[in-house]
Amino acid sequence: MAEPDWLTAQFESNRARLRAVAYRMLGSRAEADDAVQETWLRLDRADPAEVDNLGGWLTTVVARVCLDRLRARRSRREDSAAELPRDLAGMSDDHDPAHQALMAESVGAALLVVLDALAPAERVAFVLHDVFAVPFDEIAEIVGRSPDAARQLASRARRRVQGTEPTADLDLVRQRAVVDAFLRAARSGDFEGLLRLLDPDVVLWPDAAAVRMGSLRETQGADAVAGVLSGGAQAARVAIVDGVAALVWAPGGRVRGVIEFTIRSEKIVAINVTGDRERIDELDIVTVDV
User: Fold this and answer.
1) In order of start, what are the domains of the chain with their CATH numbers?
2) How far apart are CA 207 and CA 256, in angstroms?
3) I want to staple 199 with a disulfide (CB 3.0 to 4.6 A). Which of 9, 120, 240, 269 is the partner?
4) Hey, how many other C-beta atoms are within 10 angstroms of the C-beta on 168?
5) Which of 275, 271, 286, 135 is nearest to 194 (CA)?
6) How far, in Å, CA of 263 to CA of 199, rounded?
7) How far apart are alpha carbons 210 and 274 in whole angstroms?
8) What is d(CA 277, CA 212) in angstroms, rounded to the nearest whole number?
9) What are phi and psi of 107, to 5 degrees?
């Protein structure tokens, strides 16, 4: 088989997987098809002799194409009108029932809505690792981070996906009430007030940058988390971060840290503290005067 024919055949054998990757990231069949087509164009321009693992190369390229599109989408501040699927099995490789079942189970309308709330790099890291088992060292090259940072992106996205409740629990007014109460209790050192807001199994997750900036560390349990945070947050301000109530630390008017909350049944079940500059720059942050 001539080389161009061989490349075409190899690309076609990977097309279903590439389309599944792109669709999960972009939430639109049309955009997924465009991303796959762009991947083919890049393959057509590439030197096959420099590609050791064609399947991995194609996954990397389509992921980078999708990441660029997600970042462009966010920069335009446009809401993505994703085409939410009813029948997803046709996206998978018909000759791989296990993969077909995975996609049918894992890609659903509700989950796509949740994924759309993630920052672009989080979404890419989560999709590639948790759905398609791409190693973190490869993900790191795609998102331009270290392997540890890529792992944190996927972990943070996973917690947000797993912690998401129906829309009623994501109501901004109720979120804001809990966050306001948390800020008052933390500032005043009201340990009991914090306990009333925290789930017994609450987890505090600072990223590596946040750990370096202060005394925060990964902490679990209401008593332990309340002990760490009581009397703190003196310079924190309420903000709307990616459409959800949160806190920011912004000395001199520049956001240096973001505190995001996962809330279920009006109890805080997770607190994510972000100090990573690249991650913060990807967030849509509107500070609120209180």
Assistant:
1) 3-162 (1.20.140), 167-287 (3.10.450.50)
2) 13
3) 269
4) 7
5) 271
6) 9
7) 6
8) 13
9) -105, 105
Sign of CA dihedral 22, 156, 134, 277: positive
Rounded Cα–Cα distance for residues 240 and 260 (Å)? 10
Mean pLDDT within 108-118: 58
- pLDDT at residue 74, as a whole number: 63
Q: Tell me: the pLDDT tens digits for 150-186?
A: 888 888 787 776 665 444 344 567 788 899 999 999 9
Which residue in 149, 191, 188, 186 sits closest to 271, CA to CA? 186
Sort strands 198-206 and 267-274 into parallel, antiparallel or unpaired: parallel
Token output for 134: 């791409």
Where do we find the tokens 């999708």? 66
Distance CA 54, CA 34 (A): 20
For residue 82, the surrounding DSSP H or E stretch is none
Distance CA 143, CA 146 (A): 9
Percent residues over pLDDT 90 in the chain: 10
Residue 35: HSE in the Cβ half-sphere, 13 Å Cα cutoff: 30
Q: What is d(CA 39, CA 77) in angstroms, rounded to the nearest whole number?
A: 25
In this structure, the strands spanning 236-241 and 285-287 are antiparallel
* Cross-sheet strand order for the sheet of 267-274: 219-220, 198-206, 267-274, 257-264, 244-249, 236-241, 285-287
Long-range contacts of 222-227 (CB under 8 A, 24+ apart): 222/194, 222/195, 222/198, 223/195, 225/194, 225/198, 225/271, 226/191, 226/194, 226/195, 226/198, 227/191
Q: Which amino acid type is present at position 130?
A: D
Beta bridge partners of 238: 247
